């Protein structure tokens, strides 16, 4: 029997733990956890993500502040907002939603966030800690952290002797995911668009993680029987069967066929997605605890 990994359920238990921790910090130290989310421009998908982050922060009992800036915001204006949030004692986490409009350079903005407030885990200090195996001292990027919680739920904490393949090598996901798997003692392959015979590489994986942004690219004959398959893709594709102009979300994995081969698999939606927000909340309350000493 294949296990369909219920990311919503795991995320809900993380959120419960965050709520308890936030309440305790407020009662015992008088500190209310604060998250500031910044969005520039009017990309509808980004707005949807940001609203759910802000809403969840409120649900966790945090001070939740959303800065919605117009498309024509300048680099200097955005940098000034980050500086203000860096200096704001009531804010423990800062998230600048990506991608930014094309005229803005995201890298200096992300690197200007104080590492201890970088709840996205994108600052080089935090990325460096993940790369060097210092998983206690920094903040781990939310989607790989969430994906690891799901992997551990199936395979346990020690991945010794297991082959893991991560398809995709982005700074936001693929690189930190590979580092976290390696740190848990898996034998890790980072595969990408230039990998020769990707299918054969994937068939070797006890843990297969797909993060490429190509709808249903991973097919059943890429999956080793019994493998744990983690699908990080979120792709909107036309769904004429639902009516004219309708669309639906699919992952990077052809779910129905791969579910017949895998031992455990995440669905899209309802797999890794809910974990990303849950880990963002967890990072924010961790940042608040550290600040409170
Ligand atoms: N855009 C898509 N995913 C993310 C994320 O995890 N963090 C930020 N800041 N922007 C994103």
TrEMBL record:
<feature type="domain" description="Tetrahydrofolate dehydrogenase/cyclohydrolase catalytic">
    <location>
        <begin position="5"/>
        <end position="120"/>
    </location>
</feature>
<dbReference type="Pfam" id="PF02882">
    <property type="entry name" value="THF_DHG_CYH_C"/>
</dbReference>
<keyword id="KW-0521">NADP</keyword>
<comment type="function">
    <text>Catalyzes the oxidation of 5,10-methylenetetrahydrofolate to 5,10-methenyltetrahydrofolate and then the hydrolysis of 5,10-methenyltetrahydrofolate to 10-formyltetrahydrofolate.</text>
</comment>
<feature type="binding site">
    <location>
        <begin position="168"/>
        <end position="170"/>
    </location>
    <ligand>
        <name>NADP(+)</name>
    </ligand>
</feature>
<dbReference type="InterPro" id="IPR020867">
    <property type="entry name" value="THF_DH/CycHdrlase_CS"/>
</dbReference>
<keyword id="KW-0368">Histidine biosynthesis</keyword>
<comment type="similarity">
    <text>Belongs to the tetrahydrofolate dehydrogenase/cyclohydrolase family.</text>
</comment>
<dbReference type="GO" id="GO:0005829">
    <property type="term" value="C:cytosol"/>
</dbReference>
<dbReference type="InterPro" id="IPR020630">
    <property type="entry name" value="THF_DH/CycHdrlase_cat_dom"/>
</dbReference>
<dbReference type="GO" id="GO:0004488">
    <property type="term" value="F:methylenetetrahydrofolate dehydrogenase (NADP+) activity"/>
</dbReference>
<keyword id="KW-0511">Multifunctional enzyme</keyword>
<keyword id="KW-0378">Hydrolase</keyword>
<feature type="binding site">
    <location>
        <position position="234"/>
    </location>
    <ligand>
        <name>NADP(+)</name>
    </ligand>
</feature>
<dbReference type="GO" id="GO:0000105">
    <property type="term" value="P:L-histidine biosynthetic process"/>
</dbReference>
<comment type="subunit">
    <text>Homodimer.</text>
</comment>
<keyword id="KW-0486">Methionine biosynthesis</keyword>
<dbReference type="GO" id="GO:0035999">
    <property type="term" value="P:tetrahydrofolate interconversion"/>
</dbReference>
<dbReference type="InterPro" id="IPR046346">
    <property type="entry name" value="Aminoacid_DH-like_N_sf"/>
</dbReference>
<keyword id="KW-0658">Purine biosynthesis</keyword>
<dbReference type="GO" id="GO:0009086">
    <property type="term" value="P:methionine biosynthetic process"/>
</dbReference>
<dbReference type="GO" id="GO:0006164">
    <property type="term" value="P:purine nucleotide biosynthetic process"/>
</dbReference>
<dbReference type="GO" id="GO:0004477">
    <property type="term" value="F:methenyltetrahydrofolate cyclohydrolase activity"/>
</dbReference>
<dbReference type="Pfam" id="PF00763">
    <property type="entry name" value="THF_DHG_CYH"/>
</dbReference>
<protein>
    <recommendedName>
        <fullName>Bifunctional protein FolD</fullName>
        <ecNumber>1.5.1.5</ecNumber>
        <ecNumber>3.5.4.9</ecNumber>
    </recommendedName>
</protein>
<feature type="domain" description="Tetrahydrofolate dehydrogenase/cyclohydrolase NAD(P)-binding">
    <location>
        <begin position="141"/>
        <end position="290"/>
    </location>
</feature>
<dbReference type="InterPro" id="IPR020631">
    <property type="entry name" value="THF_DH/CycHdrlase_NAD-bd_dom"/>
</dbReference>
<comment type="pathway">
    <text>One-carbon metabolism; tetrahydrofolate interconversion.</text>
</comment>
<dbReference type="InterPro" id="IPR036291">
    <property type="entry name" value="NAD(P)-bd_dom_sf"/>
</dbReference>
<keyword id="KW-0554">One-carbon metabolism</keyword>
<keyword id="KW-0560">Oxidoreductase</keyword>
<keyword id="KW-0028">Amino-acid biosynthesis</keyword>
<dbReference type="InterPro" id="IPR000672">
    <property type="entry name" value="THF_DH/CycHdrlase"/>
</dbReference>
């Amino acid at each position: 029997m294949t296990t369909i990994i219920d990311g919503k359920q795991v995320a809900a238990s993380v959120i419960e733990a965050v709520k308890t921790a936030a309440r305790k910090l407020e009662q015992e130290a008088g500190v209310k956890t604060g998250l500031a989310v910044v969005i520039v421009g009017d990309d509808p998908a980004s707005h949807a993500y940001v609203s759910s982050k802000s809403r969840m922060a409120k649900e966790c009992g945090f001070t939740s502040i959303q800065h919605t800036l117009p498309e024509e915001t300048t680099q200097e204006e955005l940098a000034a907002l980050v500086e203000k949030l860096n200096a704001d004692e009531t804010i423990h986490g800062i998230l600048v939603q990506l991608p930014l409009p094309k005229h803005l350079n995201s890298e200096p903005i992300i690197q200007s966030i104080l590492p201890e407030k970088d709840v996205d885990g994108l600052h080089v200090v935090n990325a460096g800690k993940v790369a060097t195996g210092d998983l206690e001292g920094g903040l781990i990027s939310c989607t790989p952290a969430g994906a690891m919680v799901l992997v551990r739920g199936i395979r346990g904490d020690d991945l010794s002797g297991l082959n893991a393949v991560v398809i995709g090598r982005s700074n936001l996901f693929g690189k930190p995911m590979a580092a976290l798997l390696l740190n848990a003692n898996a034998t890790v392959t980072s595969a990408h668009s230039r990998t020769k015979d990707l299918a054969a590489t994937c068939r070797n994986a006890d843990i297969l993680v797909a993060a490429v942004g190509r709808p249903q690219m991973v097919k059943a004959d890429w999956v080793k029987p019994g493998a744990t398959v983690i699908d990080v893709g979120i792709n909107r594709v036309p769904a004429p069967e639902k009516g004219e102009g309708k669309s639906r979300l699919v992952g990077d994995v052809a779910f129905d066929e791969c579910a017949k081969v895998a031992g455990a698999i995440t669905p899209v939606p309802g797999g890794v997605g809910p974990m990303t927000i849950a880990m963002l909340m967890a990072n924010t309350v961790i940042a608040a605890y550290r600040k409170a000493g």
